[in-house]
User: Fold this.
Amino acid sequence: MVCQQVKHMKEAGKNRNRPGGKRVKVRYPKVKVKEAGSKGQSILTQVLDKGRFLRLGESLSLNPGKTLELRCKGTNIGWAYPSYLDTFSDNRLSIMQHERYSQLILTSPSAADTGDYSCWVVLCDGEECAKDGESTSATYIYFTDKDELFVPSAIHFEIIYLHPDKPATVPCRVTNPKINVSLHREVPAEEIAVDGTQISYNPTKGFIIQNPSPEHKGAYYCKANSTTRTTSQISTKYQLLYVEVPSGPPFATIEASSNTVSGGDIFNITCTVLGEPEMNVSFSWRYPGQGQRPVNIYDSWRLINRGLGHTTRISQSVMVVDDVETIDYGKYICSTKNKHGETLVATTVKSHEKEEEHKDYILS
Assistant:
C-alpha cells in the first residue's frame, strides 16, 4: 500500500500547474511509521520516574536496591532472565500480562541479578505457540556494586569441561563492564596471557578459550580490580578438565558375568557407556522374563581419567537376576540414550545344562 501511494504521489507531481496556470504546492501523503516491535526495533523498555520510558539497547548499568520495571510491547509476551530467580522461586520477581504489554518487576535487585533480560512476542495457532524470532529484544543489565565485583555464585568450586571441537568459557562475570579482570592458574602459579584471539574476555560471559587443549587443564581463578576498591577481589575457583570422548550417540558395551548359567544360579549383566562428563545417559532394558520375573537394576555414573589429563564419564546400568529359572534364558537388550541419539547392545544367556548336552552330542 505504501509503495502504491508513493508512485501515485510522483505521478501527481509531474505537472505542478493547474489548468488555469496557477502554481500550487503539492501535498505529499504521510507514510505511516512502523509500530514498535517491527524488525529492527526494540520492544523492550525500562519504566523511569514520572512516567518516562527508556528504550533499551545491548546493555544497561543500574545501581542495586532500586526496583526495576521493564515493559515489553505485545498482547502475548515471553520472558527470559537470570535462571536462579526461577531456581530459588524468588518472590522479588513478578510478571504480569496487560492488554497491550507485559510487565516485569524485580524488587530489591542486587549484584547477583546481573545478567541477560529478554522478551519476545509469542505467536499462537490454536493451541500451538512459538517464539517470533523477528520480535525479540534483549539487554544485559549490570547491577553495579563496589563490594561485589564478580556476579555472586552459589557454587564455590565449579568444574569446566574442555572440548577439543568447541570453545570453553570460564564464567567469571563482573557487575561493572569497566572492571579490569585477569585469569590465573593455581599450579604453577601464573597469570594467563589474554591475547584477544586464543583467549579473550567478555564481561557478560567470562574468559573464552577458543581452541581448548590438554595444556589448559588445571585449577584457575579470576582476579578483579576496580577504582572503587583498594584491594582486588578473587572469584570462584574453577577446575578445567579435558574431555576425551567426542560428542555423539552413546558408545555402549554389554557384558554378562556368565553367558551360561544353571537353574538356581545368580548372574548379572552390565551395560556401560563412555561419554562426555556432563552428558546424561538413560538406560532401559528388554529381557526374557520381563513382566514375569523380578530383577534388580542399579544405575550409576562417575568420572574417570584416561590418559594424560583426559576426563571421561562412565555410566553403567547393572541388571541382577537371582535364582535362575528356565524363563530367564535368552537375549538381554540394553538401550542407551543421550541427547544425540540411541544405541542398542545385546548379549545372550544360555542354559549350562543344554550346553553340556550339546557338547556330549557332538562328542558322541
Observations:
- The chain is about 5% helix and 45% strand.
